[in-house]
Amino acid sequence: MRESNSIKVSAVVTDKDKSGAVYITEKDFVPESPSLTIKAIGSELQYSDMAAEVVFENPLSESLRDCFITVTGSGLLTETMEARTPLLKQGHRLRVKMPFTPYRPGPKKLVAGFNCDQFRDIKASCNVYIKPFTSVVPPLP
């Protein structure tokens, strides 16, 4: 599934009741990507502490290996954050909270990515509006 993200199914059928004709068909399909969610937690204020909460659930009937989640966001994070887990068992959920401090106000987008031995480039995003920091300075006497 990693290489082309599609699966080819082929079927060969022989009509034994009638003419003995052979029918062949092929179909390519792309399975749905597993669910990955991301949300911003905390006060959406410039220079305030926030966190990105990312959740991924293993939909397969086998364990996933070498899993990692990345989180990026221009004006939100100064560098890409990464969390790794060597094994995610079948049906188990991975929930990660990554702290960050937004440094630029305005509309922003948090983007999460999930990769492992079975899946590549699973993406999710959420929009965040960061309010500008305003300091209140009392007037001089």
From TrEMBL:
Q: Matching SUPFAM superfamilies, A to Z?
A: Transglutaminase, two C-terminal domains
- Could you tell me which residue ranges the Transglutaminase C-terminal domain spans? 34-131
Q: Name one GO cellular component term.
A: mitochondrion
Q: Which domain of life is it from?
A: Eukaryota
Gene3D superfamilies associated with the record: Immunoglobulins
Q: Could you state a single Gene Ontology molecular function term? A: protein-glutamine gamma-glutamyltransferase activity
Q: Family per UniProt?
A: Belongs to the transglutaminase superfamily. Transglutaminase family.
Q: Name the chain's protein.
A: Transglutaminase C-terminal domain-containing protein
Source species of the chain: Oncorhynchus mykiss
